[in-house]
Design goal:
Radius of gyration: 19 Å
Number of strands: 9
Number of helices: 2
Organism: Halomonas rhizosphaerae
Largest sheet: 5 strands, antiparallel
GO molecular function: isomerase activity
Structural class: mainly beta
EC number: 5.2.1.8
Strand content: 35-45%
Subcellular location: Cytoplasm
Helix content: under 10%
Distance between the termini: 23 Å
Pfam families: FKBP_C
Shape: globular
Length: about 170
């Protein structure tokens, strides 16, 4: 079956930076990625590269920063009060997840001062060229419940437990 909208794709990938340093490896984690094609579950550039591929396909995809996590924005580096952190010990390099305007956002601590902390709310991979090696394991039609939810459902999910709305 070919990758197309409304289909669930299962794949393994290795994500590396431009220098070849591995950032993530789904096979090493023993956790393939499963996503619903055409529903914005993965980066648009990667989804475009996968469209039309079949189970068994292996491909390499390079995404420029604008196609991945965006360009770095120095305006997203700012100082906040020390009281904004839920833990006593805060050190450079620590990461926290916090609510953002567009959903959860990762905050990286750059510097800790007596009464303030310098943070960076750019995605940790912003500004980086990302290189994917992908192996497509399976392609199947999505269930109605998956289409309603907009993402694959865990195996064994009872479709009756998923709110059923009319699909367009």
């Amino acid at each position: 079956m070919t990758i197309a909208p409304q289909r669930v794709v299962t794949l393994h990938y290795v994500l590396s930076d431009r220098d070849g340093s591995v950032l993530d490896d789904s096979r090493a984690r023993r956790q393939p990625l499963e996503y619903l094609h055409g529903h914005g579950n993965i980066m648009a550039g990667l989804e475009r590269a996968l469209a039309g591929q079949d189970a068994g396909a292996q491909l390499s995809v390079t995404l420029m920063p604008a196609e991945a996590y965006g360009l770095r924005d120095e305006a997203l580096v700012r100082e906040v009060g020390r009281h904004a952190f839920p833990v006593e010990e805060v050190a450079p390099g620590m990461r926290f997840q916090t609510p953002g305007d567009d959903g959860p956002e990762i905050v990286t601590v750059l510097e800790v001062r007596d009464d303030a902390v310098v943070i960076d709310t750019n995605h940790p991979l912003a500004g980086q060229v990302l290189c994917y090696r992908v192996e497509v394991l399976e392609v199947r039609d999505a269930t109605r419940a998956e289409l309603v939810k907009g993402h694959p459902l865990p195996p064994g999910t009872d479709p009756g437990e998923v709110e059923d709305k009319k699909l367009p």
